[in-house]
Structure formats: C-alpha cells, structure tokens
Amino acid sequence: MAMLKTILGNLLRPSRTRAPADMPDVPPAYRGALAHEAARCTACGTCAYVCAPKAISFTQDPGLSVSWRFFIGQCSFCGLCAQNCPTQAIRLEAGVPAGMNSAAGDGFRLESVIPLRACTRCGAAHVPLPASTMDALWGSDEAERGYCPECRRWAAGARLRVAFVPAAGEEVRHER
Ligand code: SF4
Ligand code: SF4
C-alpha cells in the first residue's frame, strides 16, 4: 500500500528534468561573465561537475576557507552552472564582475572566497548553509543552524530514534 502511494505521488509530481524553460535569465548585453555570491554557495561542486570545459574549480585554505574559481578563457557561456546551482549563487552578468578586473589578476579570473565556520556542537570547520535555507529549515534560533553536516545527520538520527524507537517494555507492532 505504501509503495503504491509512493508510485502515485511520483507520477503526479511535475518533471524534475531540466528543460529550456528552466534556463537562467540572460541579460541582453551578456558578456559571458559569471557573478558568484559566496554567502549563497555551499561548495557542493555541482557547477564544476556540469561545466564541460572545466572553467570552474575550487581551492582550499584548510580550516579557514574554500575558494570558488572561474576562468573566463575556458568558458563556453552555456549557462549550465547557473541553471544547476541549487542555491542560485551564480548569475550570468551583462557587465564584467569587479573582482575580475582586479589589479592583482589578469582580468580573466574570478575568485570568490567562502569562509568556513566552526560547528557549534563538535567544532569541525564547515561551509555553512545559506542564511535563507537555515531560516526555512530551522527558524532563527535553532541550535542546528550552527551544526556541521555530520552533526546535522546526528541530530536527524536522534529525532528519528525519539520518534520511532519504543520505550523499554513497550510492545512493537507492525501493521500489515
Ligand atoms: S556555486 Fe552553486 S553549484 Fe557551485 S558549488 Fe556553490 S552552491 Fe554548488
Ligand atoms: S557557463 Fe558553461 S562553460 Fe561557462 S562556467 Fe558555466 S557551465 Fe562552464
């Protein structure tokens, strides 16, 4: 019965396959430049994975930060990175992002630094979720906001144990 419910639910859900209509907005004067918002980036790596010419890469400063890097010389301007970014941290820009014109660089690269945060439970350095995601998941004052992914998994497991594991002496019944 449960399986039938799942199958029906999946059949009635809209398609999750990306379609041309899902493409990000392209500004009229698009110059092939990407803008990246570090505060929205979870360093999941999806953008680098979908980028065939490998224009996006990451470097790490262990314990301190992760850097998202873009090299316009390798970009084919397909927009797949922006289309697939789950947090909308990448935008296609009409202008050249300021960081790309920095005196320190060659004008073709963009580096966006994502600072790591210490987990409030175990202390592990991790990339925090975007604030809007944390608000949606936990509200503004939930302890889990400061947890690393490992501790979030632990907290989810603890909630499941409380919900499903019967107290000592309690009879377990499985419905058929
Ligand atoms: S920019 Fe988006 S897709 Fe790329 S690593 Fe950050 S969150 Fe993931
Ligand atoms: S627009 Fe396409 S080629 Fe350019 S960085 Fe994004 S995925 Fe790679």
Total beta-strand segments: 7
Cofactors and ligands: iron/sulfur cluster
The string of secondary-structure elements, in order, is HEHEEHEEEEHH
Number of helices: 5
Q: Mind describing the biggest β-sheet?
A: 3 strands, antiparallel
Q: How would the global form be characterised?
A: flat
Helix content: 25-40%
Q: What is the gyration radius calculated from CA atoms?
A: 21 Å
| Spatial strand order of the main sheet | 2-3-5
| Structural class category | alpha+beta
- What is the terminal-to-terminal distance? 9 Å
Q: Uncertain regions: pLDDT < 50 for 5+ in a row?
A: none
Rounded average pLDDT: 85
Strand fraction band?
Answer: 15-25%
Can you characterise this structure?
By secondary structure, this protein is α+β, with helices and mostly antiparallel strands. 26% of the residues lie in helices and 18% in strands. It has 5 helices and 7 strands, in the order αβαββαββββαα. It has helices at 2-12, 46-50, 80-84, 131-138, 149-164; strands at 33-36, 56-61, 65-71, 90-93, 109-115, 117-118, 125-126. It has a 3-stranded antiparallel sheet with strand order 2-3-5, with no helix packed on it. Strands 1-4 form a two-stranded antiparallel sheet. A hairpin with a 3-residue loop joins strand 2 and strand 3 (65-71). The termini are close together. The model has no long low-confidence stretch (mean pLDDT 85). One iron/sulfur cluster binds at residues 50-51, 53, 55-56, 75-81.
